[in-house]
TrEMBL record:
InterPro entries: Aldolase/citrate-lyase_domain, Citrate_lyase_beta/mcl1/mcl2, Pyrv/PenolPyrv_kinase-like_dom, Pyrv_kinase-like_dom_sf. One of its GO terms (molecular function) is magnesium ion binding. Substrate binds at residues 92, 157. Keywords: Lyase, Magnesium, Metal-binding. It comes from the Bacteria. PANTHER family: CITRATE LYASE SUBUNIT BETA (PTHR32308:SF10), LYASE BETA SUBUNIT, PUTATIVE (AFU_ORTHOLOGUE AFUA_4G13030)-RELATED (PTHR32308). This is Citrate lyase subunit beta. It comes from Egicoccus halophilus. The lineage of its organism: Bacteria, Bacillati, Actinomycetota, Nitriliruptoria, Egicoccales. The gene is citE.
Amino acid sequence: MRSPKDFFRPLAIGAPDPVREIPFRPSRMIHFFDPSNPKMVAKVPDLAPKVDILLGNLEDAVAAEHKEAARAGLVEVGRSWDPSGGTQLWTRVNALDSPWVLDDLTTLVAEIGDRLDVVMLPKVEGAEDIHYADRLLAQLEARAGLQRPLLLHAILETARGVANVEEICLASPRMQGLSLGPADLAADRRMKTTRVGGGHPGYLVREDPPDGDVDASRATAQQDLWHYTVARMVDACGVAGILPFYGPFGDIKDTVACEDQFRNAYLLGCVGAWSLHPVQIGIAKQVFSPEPAEVAWAKRVVEAMGDGTGAVMLDGKMQDDATYKQCQVVLDLARSLAERDPDLAREYDL
Ligand SMILES: CC(=O)SCCNC(=O)CCNC(=O)[C@H](O)C(C)(C)COP(=O)(O)OP(=O)(O)OC[C@H]1O[C@@H](n2cnc3c(N)ncnc32)[C@H](O)[C@@H]1OP(=O)(O)O
Ligand SMILES: CC(=O)C(=O)O
Ligand SMILES: [Mg+2]
């Protein structure tokens, strides 16, 4: 383990200094597109201003014979990328054990390293994966003469990754956040689901039999398969000062269940989710923006609490230092979103 004194020193001579704080920019949706798909690339100019993060995906969902075209397509997108709009440009590179990742990183950092904000690493299993990418990125940044370090985002999608989640988050000052990878994680854990995120009708609890009659009809409720992992991610990210994201929801047509899954993640502490299809962009935008009524309530609590200490009653509910802090979380998020979104600024009236 590195000494705390060395933690913020560049890992290569000439590489930019690591960041001390992870910037908290609006991050409600990470919109995935396949840079080898001309139809999707054609939509980038229209989609970019509508999303907080646009991600050129090079890993799963890009066919092996399109890997090189996807990398080249992302370089083209990056070259014409205008960062002044405030949208972040990310990439998901191939896994560290794949035949493509070395070319992904060397090409992208050299060609568009000054346009990219974050590199998402799939299938991260432990701190050693982050250390490898950390050093390699520092060398590539130095060679490319970059002034700003690239940040790293890990997908949690193996049992070992989940077991090592805290050390992953703390492995480097480059660590920006985590996403849940429910599809690969399900396979790695030998779960018996065959879908991408969301619940399963068989994973349920049933109410007790009325008067001991086990044959009576009884209500059941589906349970959240992902609660444990998302909660662990949120805590690990909190410890490291980085940002947790829910991942993908594969049933594109089921916009209602997608919204539910995103909202659970929002309420639990996640800052955003992935959108795999344009229809999911609006869902994430709505869910991960606090409702105007919540913002108005948070404002009332903060005003009523004065310096933030003590206890007051508001509409029959006790408020104290801890509710004041929760309300500040909502207000901070609302203010940062309002800076980017004039409609929200009007609705929040902060
Ligand atoms: C487990 C994981 O790793 S999840 C992350 C990896 N997966 C992904 O990144 C998937 C990304 N999304 C996709 O590939 C596609 O959305 C699919 C395959 C799910 C569905 O694609 P389609 O069958 O073409 O959907 P549909 O017909 O509804 O698309 C409508 C239009 O939106 C476009 N479109 C679809 N998804 C996207 C997208 N993510 N970004 C931009 N445009 C898109 C389509 O090209 C199509 O364009 P057209 O009107 O010019 O023909
Ligand atoms: C997100 C992802 O990569 C997965 O679910 O496997
Ligand atoms: Mg995966």
